[in-house]
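Dear colleagues,

I hope this message finds you well. In preparation for our joint manuscript, I am sending the NADH-FMN oxidoreductase RutF, flavin reductase (DIM6/NTAB) family (Sporomusa malonica) sequence together with its predicted structure, so that both groups work from identical material. I would be grateful if you could confirm receipt.
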Amino acid sequence: MKKQLGPSDTFFPTPITLVASGTLEKPNIITIAWVGMVCSEPPTIAVSMTNKRHSTESIRNQGEFTVNIPGTSKVAEVDYCGIVSGRRNDKFKETHFTPAPGLKVGAPIIQECAYNLECKVVNELQIGEFIVFLGQIVETHIDNNCVDDTGRIILGKVNPLVYAAGLREYWNLGEKVGTAFNVGRQLRVTDGE
Ligand SMILES: Cc1cc2nc3c(=O)[nH]c(=O)nc-3n(C[C@H](O)[C@H](O)[C@H](O)COP(=O)(O)O)c2cc1C
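The corresponding C-alpha coordinates are as follows:
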Protein backbone atom coordinates (compact mmCIF):
# COMPACT_ATOMS: atom_id res chain seq x y z
CA MET A 1 0.00 0.00 0.00
CA LYS A 2 1.11 3.55 -0.68
CA LYS A 3 -0.12 6.91 0.52
CA GLN A 4 -0.72 9.63 -2.12
CA LEU A 5 0.78 13.05 -1.50
CA GLY A 6 -0.71 14.86 -4.49
CA PRO A 7 1.46 17.02 -6.77
CA SER A 8 4.50 17.69 -4.61
CA ASP A 9 7.85 19.42 -4.94
CA THR A 10 9.32 17.31 -2.14
CA PHE A 11 12.34 15.67 -3.72
CA PHE A 12 15.45 14.09 -2.33
CA PRO A 13 18.34 13.97 -2.28
CA THR A 14 19.49 17.00 -4.22
CA PRO A 15 22.89 18.58 -4.13
CA ILE A 16 22.95 21.89 -2.34
CA THR A 17 24.88 24.49 -4.27
CA LEU A 18 26.03 28.05 -3.88
CA VAL A 19 25.51 29.98 -7.09
CA ALA A 20 27.67 33.09 -7.35
CA SER A 21 27.17 36.04 -9.67
CA GLY A 22 28.29 39.64 -9.96
CA THR A 23 31.91 40.70 -9.94
CA LEU A 24 34.91 40.33 -7.64
CA GLU A 25 34.14 43.83 -6.34
CA LYS A 26 30.39 43.30 -5.97
CA PRO A 27 29.71 39.57 -5.74
CA ASN A 28 26.59 37.76 -4.53
CA ILE A 29 25.70 34.22 -3.49
CA ILE A 30 22.37 32.37 -3.58
CA THR A 31 21.72 28.93 -2.10
CA ILE A 32 20.14 26.70 -4.75
CA ALA A 33 18.68 23.22 -4.37
CA TRP A 34 16.88 23.15 -7.74
CA VAL A 35 19.93 22.32 -9.82
CA GLY A 36 20.94 19.49 -12.12
CA MET A 37 23.20 18.48 -14.98
CA VAL A 38 21.11 18.36 -18.18
CA CYS A 39 23.64 17.62 -20.93
CA SER A 40 27.06 15.94 -21.08
CA GLU A 41 28.28 17.37 -24.39
CA PRO A 42 28.46 20.30 -24.17
CA PRO A 43 28.34 20.01 -20.37
CA THR A 44 25.30 22.04 -19.35
CA ILE A 45 23.68 22.59 -15.97
CA ALA A 46 20.22 23.94 -15.07
CA VAL A 47 19.70 26.20 -12.07
CA SER A 48 16.22 27.32 -11.16
CA MET A 49 15.31 30.39 -9.13
CA THR A 50 12.21 32.49 -8.68
CA ASN A 51 12.06 35.81 -10.46
CA LYS A 52 12.01 37.56 -7.05
CA ARG A 53 15.64 36.73 -6.28
CA HIS A 54 18.31 39.37 -6.59
CA SER A 55 20.49 36.70 -8.24
CA THR A 56 17.92 36.16 -11.01
CA GLU A 57 18.26 39.76 -12.06
CA SER A 58 22.04 39.78 -11.92
CA ILE A 59 22.50 36.45 -13.75
CA ARG A 60 20.10 37.59 -16.46
CA ASN A 61 22.01 40.85 -16.93
CA GLN A 62 25.42 39.24 -16.68
CA GLY A 63 24.79 36.04 -18.64
CA GLU A 64 27.24 34.19 -16.39
CA PHE A 65 27.35 32.48 -13.01
CA THR A 66 29.34 29.92 -11.09
CA VAL A 67 28.08 26.82 -9.27
CA ASN A 68 30.04 25.99 -6.14
CA ILE A 69 29.79 22.80 -4.07
CA PRO A 70 30.07 23.50 -0.35
CA GLY A 71 31.37 20.96 2.17
CA THR A 72 29.40 19.89 5.25
CA SER A 73 31.41 22.19 7.53
CA LYS A 74 29.81 25.16 5.75
CA VAL A 75 26.21 24.21 6.52
CA ALA A 76 25.48 27.39 8.52
CA GLU A 77 26.94 29.62 5.79
CA VAL A 78 24.92 27.75 3.15
CA ASP A 79 21.72 28.23 5.10
CA TYR A 80 22.51 31.90 5.68
CA CYS A 81 22.96 32.53 1.94
CA GLY A 82 19.48 31.06 1.48
CA ILE A 83 17.87 33.31 4.08
CA VAL A 84 19.09 36.82 3.28
CA SER A 85 19.19 38.71 -0.01
CA GLY A 86 22.11 40.33 -1.77
CA ARG A 87 19.84 43.35 -2.20
CA ARG A 88 20.55 44.26 1.42
CA ASN A 89 23.38 41.99 2.54
CA ASP A 90 27.00 41.40 1.56
CA LYS A 91 26.90 37.61 1.91
CA PHE A 92 30.57 37.10 1.02
CA LYS A 93 31.58 39.41 3.84
CA GLU A 94 29.11 38.02 6.36
CA THR A 95 30.00 34.36 5.70
CA HIS A 96 33.75 35.04 5.35
CA PHE A 97 33.67 33.34 1.96
CA THR A 98 36.36 34.58 -0.45
CA PRO A 99 35.44 35.56 -4.01
CA ALA A 100 38.17 34.29 -6.33
CA PRO A 101 38.47 35.12 -10.04
CA GLY A 102 37.15 32.67 -12.59
CA LEU A 103 39.21 31.95 -15.70
CA LYS A 104 36.47 32.14 -18.31
CA VAL A 105 33.69 34.18 -16.69
CA GLY A 106 33.54 37.42 -14.74
CA ALA A 107 31.41 35.91 -11.95
CA PRO A 108 33.57 34.84 -8.99
CA ILE A 109 34.08 31.31 -7.71
CA ILE A 110 33.94 30.65 -3.96
CA GLN A 111 37.42 29.79 -2.72
CA GLU A 112 36.20 27.77 0.29
CA CYS A 113 34.11 25.41 -1.88
CA ALA A 114 36.16 22.46 -3.14
CA TYR A 115 34.46 22.19 -6.55
CA ASN A 116 33.51 25.08 -8.81
CA LEU A 117 31.88 25.29 -12.24
CA GLU A 118 32.11 28.39 -14.41
CA CYS A 119 28.99 28.75 -16.55
CA LYS A 120 27.73 30.88 -19.42
CA VAL A 121 23.97 31.20 -19.83
CA VAL A 122 22.90 29.61 -23.12
CA ASN A 123 19.15 29.61 -22.55
CA GLU A 124 16.44 30.64 -20.13
CA LEU A 125 13.01 29.08 -19.50
CA GLN A 126 10.13 30.34 -17.44
CA ILE A 127 8.05 27.81 -15.50
CA GLY A 128 5.47 29.34 -13.16
CA GLU A 129 7.36 31.89 -11.08
CA PHE A 130 10.66 30.16 -11.68
CA ILE A 131 13.36 31.03 -14.17
CA VAL A 132 15.53 28.12 -15.24
CA PHE A 133 18.95 29.20 -16.45
CA LEU A 134 20.77 26.70 -18.63
CA GLY A 135 24.48 27.29 -18.16
CA GLN A 136 27.16 25.78 -20.36
CA ILE A 137 30.11 24.79 -18.20
CA VAL A 138 33.20 26.45 -19.61
CA GLU A 139 35.69 25.68 -16.81
CA THR A 140 35.85 23.45 -13.73
CA HIS A 141 38.05 23.83 -10.63
CA ILE A 142 38.77 21.38 -7.82
CA ASP A 143 40.92 21.73 -4.72
CA ASN A 144 44.25 19.93 -5.14
CA ASN A 145 43.70 17.81 -2.05
CA CYS A 146 40.42 16.45 -3.46
CA VAL A 147 42.01 14.56 -6.39
CA ASP A 148 44.36 11.57 -6.27
CA ASP A 149 47.55 11.12 -8.33
CA THR A 150 45.55 9.80 -11.29
CA GLY A 151 43.26 12.85 -11.27
CA ARG A 152 40.29 10.94 -9.86
CA ILE A 153 38.06 12.97 -7.55
CA ILE A 154 38.10 11.84 -3.90
CA LEU A 155 34.46 12.42 -3.01
CA GLY A 156 35.04 11.94 0.71
CA LYS A 157 37.42 14.90 0.66
CA VAL A 158 34.93 17.11 -1.20
CA ASN A 159 32.40 15.95 1.43
CA PRO A 160 29.45 17.66 -0.28
CA LEU A 161 26.28 18.64 1.51
CA VAL A 162 23.10 16.85 0.45
CA TYR A 163 19.63 18.37 0.79
CA ALA A 164 16.21 16.82 1.36
CA ALA A 165 13.81 19.37 -0.14
CA GLY A 166 10.41 19.37 1.52
CA LEU A 167 11.92 17.99 4.72
CA ARG A 168 14.22 21.01 5.01
CA GLU A 169 17.14 18.83 6.13
CA TYR A 170 20.84 18.89 5.30
CA TRP A 171 22.67 15.55 5.27
CA ASN A 172 26.10 14.27 4.40
CA LEU A 173 26.83 11.72 1.67
CA GLY A 174 27.12 8.44 3.56
CA GLU A 175 28.81 5.34 2.12
CA LYS A 176 29.51 4.25 -1.44
CA VAL A 177 27.23 1.29 -2.23
CA GLY A 178 28.25 0.35 -5.79
CA THR A 179 30.09 1.12 -9.00
CA ALA A 180 27.87 2.52 -11.75
CA PHE A 181 27.56 0.75 -15.13
CA ASN A 182 28.92 -2.31 -13.34
CA VAL A 183 26.96 -3.43 -10.28
CA GLY A 184 23.83 -3.90 -12.42
CA ARG A 185 25.55 -6.54 -14.53
CA GLN A 186 24.99 -9.13 -11.82
CA LEU A 187 21.28 -9.11 -12.74
CA ARG A 188 21.95 -10.34 -16.27
CA VAL A 189 20.22 -13.72 -16.50
CA THR A 190 21.05 -14.67 -20.07
CA ASP A 191 24.24 -14.46 -22.09
CA GLY A 192 22.44 -12.33 -24.73
CA GLU A 193 24.04 -9.09 -26.03
C1 LIG B 1 18.33 25.01 1.44
C2 LIG B 1 17.84 26.12 0.54
C3 LIG B 1 17.62 25.86 -0.80
C4 LIG B 1 17.15 26.88 -1.64
N1 LIG B 1 16.96 26.61 -2.96
C5 LIG B 1 16.44 27.57 -3.76
C6 LIG B 1 16.21 27.31 -5.14
O1 LIG B 1 16.51 26.22 -5.66
N2 LIG B 1 15.67 28.32 -5.90
C7 LIG B 1 15.36 29.54 -5.38
O2 LIG B 1 14.84 30.42 -6.08
N3 LIG B 1 15.60 29.82 -4.07
C8 LIG B 1 16.14 28.88 -3.27
N4 LIG B 1 16.39 29.16 -1.95
C9 LIG B 1 16.11 30.50 -1.44
C10 LIG B 1 17.20 31.52 -1.83
O3 LIG B 1 18.48 30.99 -1.59
C11 LIG B 1 16.99 32.81 -0.97
O4 LIG B 1 15.76 33.39 -1.28
C12 LIG B 1 18.12 33.81 -1.10
O5 LIG B 1 18.03 34.68 0.00
C13 LIG B 1 18.07 34.64 -2.38
O6 LIG B 1 19.22 35.45 -2.43
P1 LIG B 1 19.38 36.69 -3.43
O7 LIG B 1 18.14 37.55 -3.28
O8 LIG B 1 20.62 37.37 -2.91
O9 LIG B 1 19.53 36.15 -4.80
C14 LIG B 1 16.89 28.18 -1.11
C15 LIG B 1 17.14 28.43 0.25
C16 LIG B 1 17.62 27.41 1.06
C17 LIG B 1 17.89 27.70 2.52
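For the figure legend, we might mention the following. The first strand starts at residue 11 and ends at 15. The chain has one domain: 11-187.

With kind regards,
E.M.
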